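User:
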Amino acid sequence: MSDDFEIDTDDLERRMKGALDSLRQEFASLRTGRASATMVEPIMVDAYGSPTPINQIGTVNVPEPRMVTINIWDKGLVSKAEKAIRESGLGINPQLNGTIIMLPIPELNEERRRELTKVAAQYAESARVAVRNIRRDGMDQIKKAKSAGMAEDDQKFWETEVQELTNKMIGTVDKTLEAKQAEIMQV
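Assistant: Predicted structure:
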């Protein structure tokens, strides 16, 4: 193998793990019947002309197992935050109390559990697409190296390395999805 053409598989792996970390954060936002401050993290509010995470316009608290409260600092953003929560797909009906938005977490029924498993599957598919895009970047690096004079054996070696890394990461995404779906369906 020629050392002239090294493909940075460490960088590809780091980027794929980033996609996996992002998936885990999205899964943390899916509620399973218990209140969690992380469930509102992906919600973006149109604040001052740009999308802003809800936890940057107010304080998120979990005062009891079935309640999340968000104390919005700017009164003018309360209605925008409420609208963002309603449109987020969390299936929670926010209640206003001045600048405090209360999110009572209802018990999950069977239908809602199935909906959440579908949302989890969508998140997982997005992660798979991200991993495949990173794989494509790696394969493009290999093609460039081949056109710059990489030996065919080296090309096959690196293509195999990148494909094995991709398969491993997609397997991890699938296992993470299975675990989350089992957690959601658990009564």
